[in-house]
């Protein structure tokens, strides 16, 4: 047995907190590491000790193995838990941890190295008898070799980074003409994200299920599986909704997939928590995709249906103890569903978002679990992955679990950066998902490249207007305590009306709010909407609108700006009443950065004639590359930044003089 009483968590955000909670429950001391951008983060305050390891960029902090090891030495940590992402699947880091006399809470460096290289892993899996997708995983990385292999495999094919995952360095290619550009972009993303530009090809299995098996091994050679998770609901190969068990897997298929996953783990003498991912066809045929040699983001759904704390099991195995359960001990009860709350803007093609969090309201309820790493007053940094929290629900049935997650989202609010909250609510309510039939093509087929919420209704504007006028009323009441409350908002002859003007769509929406004894009447055009505000706290409200009771959450950023979260939608409004109007310009010729990030390159020059839809620049944000396209045809008249420059959201990149 290897003894340690202090664990350093080499990560940040929700996974750092999740690992620390179990470690603390087991009586272990915890150490947090943090970048300068995370100095006030929740995981830093939660830990028993915390050490700053560098500036905000991950390459100078969370990916700096030397500084992490120095932090362990300073604090007396005997073990390091890498979480997921960052250095969690870095074999050199695992070796360095062991070389420093510390325990790496994860598999051996050799297992990480083999399974981290998709080409090597696939060759080993074929040898071990694990079903694999036809493809090319050779060492010859010449573009012509890839073309020849793709023609032999047959299009469509998937270009994938041999190292890493998470959808980075991955491109779906339908024709030979698309292959050169796909290889170039995939190599650049792979090199930036994983430090290796080695690629592989695989036959594209279109719209399969993405089903993964949780495995666990100990130093005695025992390997077992804890069932499957269905991760089919993905966007651009990034998982969005996960569940256990899979609606498409029966006990016989679970056993076959479980045995294949165990064979994969045993092929590398696997110790610790790992996940073997498969593509599952409707016929029941399945193919090895990859093995993640770490704890997965979606591990909570397995914990909720098996009752096994996977982090506690990791700590047990890392200390040299054998697994304290057998395959026959693993039982599944009920169903669990997890959704990932991202800081991203679904209306803008799901572009990552960043900035201060004005309000994070965390839901609670029976069967609900929230794994988060954010808080009101915190900041979403452009330097790190945009996933902020996970809402997980358990139920005796799949439908009960779905309803609990849905209600949890409806009772939550994230104001500040754009988020995918409303998109998740909509996705959970789609018939295809409700019926358990979603495949990997579900999001693309249902939503395309973006999610457009319903247009703001008169009721939405009425709710906002009543909240706005109530907040103004309360401010006036505080400023004039000597005036009786019943006199505020009244003239000598009749109640006065307050006017709120919101910009919504093409035309402004004017809301006239008249207070009455029992509430207010909001006039919007010819519509008369009766609203009674029954309860208003610091963040929550309840009202009756046209006879229907509605509850929600709100936050006032300023006298004019208000954010509102209703059960099925969230939005921000701005009161423009009394503000002068200027002639609006189209602004299409001004190309600005859609988010915080680094300008990787410019594809045009001053004086160049360009066409609408032409690529202008590439912006890197949150470890992904985003192409910026021309909205108009014309001539580039000026360019502001240089390649490599850091950009803030809204910064001018270039200007186009439109064709007449």
From TrEMBL:
Residues 581-657 form the Lipoyl-binding domain. InterPro entries: ATP-grasp, BC-like_N, Biotin_BS, Biotin_carboxylase_complex, Biotin_carboxylation_dom, Biotin_COase_C, Biotin_lipoyl, CPAse_ATP-bd. Residues 3-448 form the Biotin carboxylation domain. Its cofactor is biotin. Signal peptide: none annotated. Residues 122-319 form the ATP-grasp domain. GO terms for molecular function: ATP binding; ligase activity; metal ion binding. Keywords: ATP-binding, Biotin, Ligase, Nucleotide-binding. Pfam families: Biotin_carb_C (PF02785), Biotin_carb_N (PF00289), Biotin_lipoyl (PF00364), CPSase_L_D2 (PF02786). PANTHER family: CARBOXYLASE:PYRUVATE/ACETYL-COA/PROPIONYL-COA CARBOXYLASE (PTHR18866), METHYLCROTONOYL-COA CARBOXYLASE SUBUNIT ALPHA, MITOCHONDRIAL-RELATED (PTHR18866:SF33). NCBIfam families: PRK08591.1. This is Acetyl-/propionyl-coenzyme A carboxylase alpha chain. It comes from Shimia thalassica. The gene is accA1_2.
